[in-house]
Amino acid sequence: MESFDFYPEKPELVEPKQKGSMSLTFFSLVLFVLVFFLFFDNEINFIVYLVIVLLIHELGHFLAMKFFKYKNVRMLFIPLMGAFVQGIKSNYSQKESFIVTIAGPFPGVLIGALLIYFGAEYHYAWFLTVGLLFLLLNIINLLPLDPLDGGQMFKLYFNKGNELMLMIFAFISSLFMIGVGWYIDSYVLMLFGFFMGFRVRALQKKYEIHKELKQEGVDFATTYNLLSNQTYSQIKKVVLEYTPTLQKYTGQVSEEELDPIFASQVNSVLITPLIKDASLFFRLMVFIFWVASFIVPIVLFMNIDVQWYLDGV
After folding, report:
1. Are 284 and 104 in contact (CB under 8 A)?
2. Tens of pLDDT along 182-200?
3. ∠ CA(253), CA(204), CA(268), 5° rounding?
4. Is the Cβ–Cβ distance between 153 and 293 less than 8 Å?
C-alpha cells in the first residue's frame, strides 16, 4: 500500500558557500600578527616562532580533514587566542575524527622534542626556543578541556549522545579557564572562559530540546537530507517553543523569508551520526600516545643539558 506524507514539504537547507577561504585565512593571520605586535612590539622573533608553531599545528588538522574529504575546510586565526580549522561531513567516522584531532598536537609534541634534543646537543639556542614553544602550546592543547583537542578526544572516547555529561564537562572547562585567567591575571583567558560559558547555555538549550524530542519519539540522530517532512515539522515545532525570537517574527515575516532560518535552526538541533569504527586497540594506542605526550618532555629534560641555554636567557 502506498503511503502519503501530508506534512508540508521541508524547505531546502542552504549551506554557506565557501568563497575565498585562502584569502580569509591570510587576512585572519595578518590581523593575528598585528594585534600581537601591538602588545609585544619588541618580540618580533617570538611572534614569528608563534605563527610557525600554530601554522604547523593547524596544518596537521587541515591536511587530515582534506584527506578524509571534509567539505568547506578552512583555517582561521583568532588574535590573542590561537587558531582553528573547521570542516563538515554528512557522516562522521570515530576513527577519522580521532586522527583529525590528534593530527595537530601529536606531531607538534614530536617536533618540539626533536628540536629541543638537537638544540641541546649542538647548542642551537633558537632550536630550544622554538622547541619549547612547540611543546608548551601542544601539551596545553592536549589538556582534557573543551574546546581544546584534548577535550575533543574526551568526547570521542565517551558517548557523544550523553549530552548531560558533555554539558557538565563544558561547564567545568569554562570555570577552569576563568579561574586560571584570574590566577595568572590574564583578562584574555578569563574572557575566553566567559565566551565558553555562553556555549554552555547553547548546549543546555539543545539538551532541553532533545529531551522533549525523545519524549515525543522523534529521531534527531540523522542528517537534514534524510529528514522526512513529518520529522522536520515535529522538530520545528519544538525549536519554536524554545526560541522566543523566532516566535516573535512568525506571522510578521513571510514564510519564504523564514524558511531558510527554520531550516538552519532545525539542522543545528540534529546530531550527525557517528560511525563507531575505532577498535579498542586503536583507542588504547591513542590514549598511550596522549599519556606519552606529557611524559616524554619530562624524560627529555632529565637527560639533556640546557644550563648553557638558561644562562644566556
Report:
1. no
2. 876 766 667 777 777 777 7
3. 50
4. no
Write down the domain spans for the chain. 20-160+277-313
> Helical H runs in the chain?
21-39, 44-67, 94-102, 105-122, 125-141, 149-157, 163-183, 187-215, 229-241, 244-249, 255-269, 280-302, 307-312
Cell of 105: 598536537
Whether the Cβ atoms of residue 68 and residue 77 lie closer than 8 Å to each other = no
The pTM of this model reads 0.79
3-state secondary structure (DSSP) of residue 265: helix
State how far the Cα of 87 lies from the Cα of 62, in Å rounded to an integer: 9
Give the pLDDT of residue 1: 41
User: For residue 3, how many other CB atoms are within 10 A of its CB?
Assistant: 4
Q: What are phi and psi of 87, to 5 degrees?
A: -165, 165
> Which are the contacts of 26, defined by CB distance < 8 A and separation ≥ 6?
none
**136/228 Cα distance (integer angstroms):** 48
Distance between CA atoms of 220 and 266, rounded to whole angstroms?
9
Give the alpha-carbon dihedral of 283, 284, 288, 293, to 10 degrees: 10
List 253's β-bridge partners, or say none: 250
**Does residue 125 surpass a pLDDT of 80?**
yes
Cα 160 to Cα 28, 92, 153, 155, 164, distances in angstroms: 31, 12, 11, 6, 10
**Beta strands 274-275; 92-93: pairing state:** parallel
Q: Do 143 and 155 meet the contact criterion of CB atoms below 8 Å apart?
A: no
Do residues 107 and 285 make contact, with C-beta atoms less than 8 angstroms apart? Answer: no
